[in-house]
Amino acid sequence: MRPGIEADKRGAAAWEFAGLLFILVLGSAAHFAFALSGEFPPLAPLLAVNESVWEHLKLAFWPALLWAVLERQPLVGRVNNFLLAKSTGILLMPITIVVLFYSYTSILGDNLLALDIASFVIAIVVGQYVSYRLLTGNERNLAAGRLAVVVVILAAVSFAVFTFAPPHIGLFMDGPSGHFGILS
User: Fold this and answer.
1) How large a percentage of the chain has pLDDT more than 70?
2) Hey, which residues does 180 pair with through a beta bridge?
3) Cα separation of 88 and 152, whole Å?
4) Could you tell me the sign of the dihedral formed by the alpha carbons of 94, 96, 98, 100, in that order?
5) Is the pLDDT of residue 1 over 60?
6) Domain count, the chain
7) Is 96 part of any domain?
């Protein structure tokens, strides 16, 4: 670790906590933004267009990605592993949502709004915490960070593609209507 990392840990903790709040607020607002936009198609890859699990993953992914862009300048050079930390945190959020959602619904047999919201909050906490741990941990291989960025880019492309052309499986199905994506 570099000298002075204690100050960096406090700064990183503050940024990651602020990010947690930012992602919660922006993600919550994004749930309703597509409808409020008049269902403006260019916004569809960024916002939930229906009530499918897949579309709800965008509510954590895009705000977390935006937060990573906003915190890059103040943190790079003060922490380790920025690309790896932020990419891993961003990717863990949707993964955590899927795992929690399908775990609790397999036990209860149905979904509950309170548990959906709790899953969203837990996913953000997990993503930001892992990001913090990587930011303040020992330096890792730069190649791992670059690979993680490629995976984030692939996820972003997937959100765009599968909004308009989703596979017809449960993850992508809008529960209330039975439709898939924005075009069905």
Assistant:
1) 95
2) 173
3) 8
4) negative
5) no
6) 1
7) yes
- Cα–Cα distances (Å) from 38 to 31, 49, 174, 183, in that order, read 14, 11, 19, 15
Amino acid at 29: A
Please compute, for residue 133, the number of CA atoms within 13 A of its CA located in the half-sphere on the CB side. Answer: 8
Q: Is residue 181 part of a domain?
A: no
Q: How many CA atoms lie within 13 A of 69 on its CB side?
A: 7
Q: Does 113 reside within a domain?
A: yes
pTM: 0.91
Q: What is the rounded distance in angstroms from the CA atom of residue 15 to the CA atom of residue 128?
A: 9
d(CA 173, CA 168): 7
Alpha-carbon span 134 to 80, nearest angstrom = 7
| Structural domain containing residue 52 | 5-172
Question: In this structure, is residue 41 part of a structural domain?
Answer: yes
Contact 172, 162 (CB under 8 A): yes
Is the model's pLDDT at 93 over the cut of 80? yes
- Dump pLDDT digits (tens) for 96-112: 999 999 999 999 999 99
